[in-house]
Design a protein that fits this description.
- With about 300 residues, the protein is an alpha+beta fold.
- The chain has a domain of about 100 residues: Thrombin, subunit H.
- Helix content is about 25%, strand content about 30%.
- Strand 12 and strand 13 form a beta hairpin.
Length: about 300
């Protein structure tokens, strides 16, 4: 049985009501479901393995120190000062993975590239319409049967939507829902990998300015790319450069984001999604990052898919 959307226990989760979604064209068999479940479990275990690495290294240092002291001093008891010295030596000489690296590894299997195409008709009878790229953005899988969140402006007006998963598999997708006031769209991929992994969503109730976050996506089509920073502010308002739309209750962040990051996840250092990147502030109209980005809180984004998570 497929897994529903995941919500972090750090908030106050409620069991989401059963949602009605479009089923993919291809349903993996028993082997695919077993493989997908195994991969999902392995993915969740990786984060715990990183955390255990710290403890293992510290324990190793203590045991090594104990052996050396026992060999040199005979029966002399190991003091707290000896243990502290061993721990400090280990921390000074061992390079541990950064929090950002752990967050990136956790979210990466759920990040997809989203590309919109328009059909070009050359007017010649008997020839198929050619596809012309019109937009590029990012999306994040929130349910492992291929339900994806992205920005509405990435896919709006596209004749064809292409999705590329983290394993390189490419398929088309359909828009199954939209929330124009928050520039959000819900996509259903027409095919999915057997080992599809959905992201975990986390409540923003305890999010504070200064918290570390990471934006993952395809800036200018390059990626997947990661940039880390902090939450700069909450409940921000942003008006589009054309002045046609005003969005409220946004998360402001300073992790670098550029065109192509739109629709991608904003995640905590645990790799849990707290927002969907939607806009950057451009006072000079150059479409380049000046240090201020905005994301729609995940509560709003999940509601666009009919799944209020918290």
């Amino acid at each position: 049985m497929r897994r529903s959307a995941l919500y972090s226990s750090s908030g106050k989760p409620k069991i989401p009501e059963q949602e009605k979604q479009v089923e993919p064209e291809v349903t993996p068999g028993t082997d695919g479901r077993r493989k997908r479940l195994q991969n999902a479990l392995h993915q969740r275990l990786r984060l715990h393995q990183f955390k255990l690495l710290w403890s293992a290294l510290l324990l190793l240092a203590v045991l090594l120190a104990a052996s050396l002291y026992a060999a040199k001093t005979g029966d002399r008891k190991i003091t707290q000062q000896d243990i502290n010295a061993a721990v400090l030596k280990t921390l000074e000489t061992t390079q541990l993975p950064s929090a950002a690296a752990k967050a990136y590894e956790t979210i990466l299997p759920s990040v997809v590239q989203v590309m919109g195409y328009s059909k070009k008709n050359d007017g010649k009878e008997g020839k198929n319409d050619e596809e012309a790229e019109r937009s590029v953005g990012t999306g994040v899988v929130i349910v492992d049967k291929g339900i994806i969140l992205t920005n509405l402006h990435v896919v709006q007006g596209a004749d064809i939507i292409h999705i590329t998963f983290s394993d390189g598999m490419t398929t088309t997708a359909s828009i199954t829902g939209a929330q124009p006031e928050n520039d959000l769209a819900v996509l259903q991929a027409h095919k999915i990998p057997d080992d599809m992994i959905a992201a975990t969503m986390r409540s923003t109730a305890d999010l504070r300015p200064g918290d570390q976050v990471m934006a993952v996506g395809f800036p200018f089509g390059i990626g997947p790319s990661a940039s880390s920073g902090i939450v700069s502010g909450l409940k921000r308002t942003f008006r589009s450069p054309e002045g046609r739309q005003e969005m409220r209750n946004l998360i402001q962040f300073d992790a670098a984001a550029n065109p192509g990051n739109s629709g991608g996840p904003l995640v905590t250092m645990d790799g849990e999604v707290v927002g969907i990147v939607t806009a950057i502030y451009n006072p000079n109209q150059q479409r380049t990052f000046v240090g201020i980005g905005f994301a729609v809180p995940i509560e709003n984004a999940a509601a666009a898919a009919g799944m209020p998570p918290f």
